[in-house]
């Protein structure tokens, strides 16, 4: 009974934190967009040869920019809470449709990079812990430091230059929907995913190594060895389980950074994801689209951290106490 109450209180506190963070982000995003130099109305009418004050006022009234900022915010927030993210100022299409049309490439790229980075970091970190003090451990640690210092976009550019020289017929840029060509989809996203995953792989592998070395010095590991358990079982069944909490924490946080990094890498590899959508919307001062896109990306980041909190409980129930 008490365990169930603690679990419910833990979930309620995390859900409240999520709501507070999203509210704060919505306020900051709404205000920051309006501090960007330039006027959406002036930009929209810039191509018109007859820009008059009456037309400016009419357009400003039509898109709601003639109201006080506070009223604009609460009007927008009310729409968001009811599922209405607004209408694009340029295409007049619902913002939700614009985001949906560009989100899947970004989600695919982020998930593939997370699978590559997190998936390889676990065995690599365990290997580094087993080889502690040896030449291979030193080489792997130097390589991980180098991986942390290489920007993903630069690595992507170097990959493109190298492969266009070695395989000029290979089409590296662009995007193919998974539903049309599954293999082509993976082939297009593999290089940007590797470029995006390298810093994550370097960071997480070092973290796993440190956590494993700490776990291997604990009493329960000494007891397991005294019982004659195989070293492989001690590493993966006992030590690695206790090293997973810092790993899960960092992997969850880095998922948010992967979303941000994916926006830049998408530009390098000409992937039509949220990066292209956000940059285009900022250049056009498309307030509803920029606000909604940033809010969606932030919600994804906060939701990932919420899921990470739930994983804490599964890994170590003492976390909710």
UniProtKB/TrEMBL annotation:
<feature type="transmembrane region" description="Helical">
    <location>
        <begin position="289"/>
        <end position="315"/>
    </location>
</feature>
<feature type="transmembrane region" description="Helical">
    <location>
        <begin position="186"/>
        <end position="204"/>
    </location>
</feature>
<feature type="transmembrane region" description="Helical">
    <location>
        <begin position="70"/>
        <end position="91"/>
    </location>
</feature>
<dbReference type="InterPro" id="IPR045621">
    <property type="entry name" value="BPD_transp_1_N"/>
</dbReference>
<dbReference type="Pfam" id="PF00528">
    <property type="entry name" value="BPD_transp_1"/>
</dbReference>
<keyword id="KW-1003">Cell membrane</keyword>
<feature type="transmembrane region" description="Helical">
    <location>
        <begin position="15"/>
        <end position="36"/>
    </location>
</feature>
<dbReference type="InterPro" id="IPR000515">
    <property type="entry name" value="MetI-like"/>
</dbReference>
<dbReference type="Pfam" id="PF19300">
    <property type="entry name" value="BPD_transp_1_N"/>
</dbReference>
<feature type="transmembrane region" description="Helical">
    <location>
        <begin position="139"/>
        <end position="166"/>
    </location>
</feature>
<comment type="similarity">
    <text>Belongs to the binding-protein-dependent transport system permease family.</text>
</comment>
<keyword id="KW-1133">Transmembrane helix</keyword>
<keyword id="KW-0813">Transport</keyword>
<feature type="domain" description="ABC transmembrane type-1">
    <location>
        <begin position="103"/>
        <end position="308"/>
    </location>
</feature>
<keyword id="KW-0472">Membrane</keyword>
<dbReference type="GO" id="GO:0005886">
    <property type="term" value="C:plasma membrane"/>
</dbReference>
<keyword id="KW-0812">Transmembrane</keyword>
<protein>
    <submittedName>
        <fullName>Glutathione ABC transporter permease GsiC</fullName>
    </submittedName>
</protein>
<feature type="transmembrane region" description="Helical">
    <location>
        <begin position="243"/>
        <end position="269"/>
    </location>
</feature>
<dbReference type="InterPro" id="IPR035906">
    <property type="entry name" value="MetI-like_sf"/>
</dbReference>
<dbReference type="GO" id="GO:0071916">
    <property type="term" value="F:dipeptide transmembrane transporter activity"/>
</dbReference>
<feature type="transmembrane region" description="Helical">
    <location>
        <begin position="103"/>
        <end position="127"/>
    </location>
</feature>
């Amino acid at each position: 009974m008490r365990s169930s109450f603690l679990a419910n209180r833990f979930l309620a506190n995390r859900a409240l934190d999520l709501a507070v963070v999203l509210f704060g982000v919505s306020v900051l995003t709404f205000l920051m967009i309006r501090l960007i130099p330039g006027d959406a109305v002036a930009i929209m009418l810039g191509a018109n040869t007859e820009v008059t004050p009456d037309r400016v006022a009419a357009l400003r009234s039509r898109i709601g920019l003639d109201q006080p900022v506070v009223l604009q915010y609460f009007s927008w927030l009310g729409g968001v809470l009811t599922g209405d993210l607004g209408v694009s100022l340029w295409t007049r299409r619902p913002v939700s449709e614009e985001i949906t049309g560009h989100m899947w490439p970004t989600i695919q790229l982020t998930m593939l990079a997370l699978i590559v980075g997190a998936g390889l970091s676990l065995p690599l970190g365990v290997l580094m812990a087993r080889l502690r003090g040896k030449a291979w451990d030193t080489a792997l640690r130097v390589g991980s430091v180098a991986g942390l210092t290489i920007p993903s976009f630069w690595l992507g550019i170097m990959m493109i230059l190298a492969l266009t020289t070695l395989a000029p017929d290979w089409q590296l840029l662009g995007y193919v929907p998974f539903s049309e060509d599954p293999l082509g989809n993976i082939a297009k996203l593999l290089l940007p995913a590797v470029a995006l995953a390298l810093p994550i792989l370097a960071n997480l592998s070092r973290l796993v190594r440190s956590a494993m070395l700490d776990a291997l010095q604990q009493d329960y590991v000494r007891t397991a060895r005294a019982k004659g358990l195989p070293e492989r079982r001690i590493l993966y069944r006992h030590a690695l389980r206790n090293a997973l909490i810092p790993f899960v924490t960092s992997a969850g946080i880095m998922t948010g950074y992967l979303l941000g990094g994916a926006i830049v890498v998408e530009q390098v590899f000409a992937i039509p994801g949220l990066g292209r959508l956000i940059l285009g919307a900022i250049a056009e001062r498309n307030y509803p689209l920029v606000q909604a896109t940033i809010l969606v990306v932030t919600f994804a980041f906060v939701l990932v951290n919420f899921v990470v909190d739930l994983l804490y409980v599964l890994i170590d129930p003492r976390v909710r106490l």
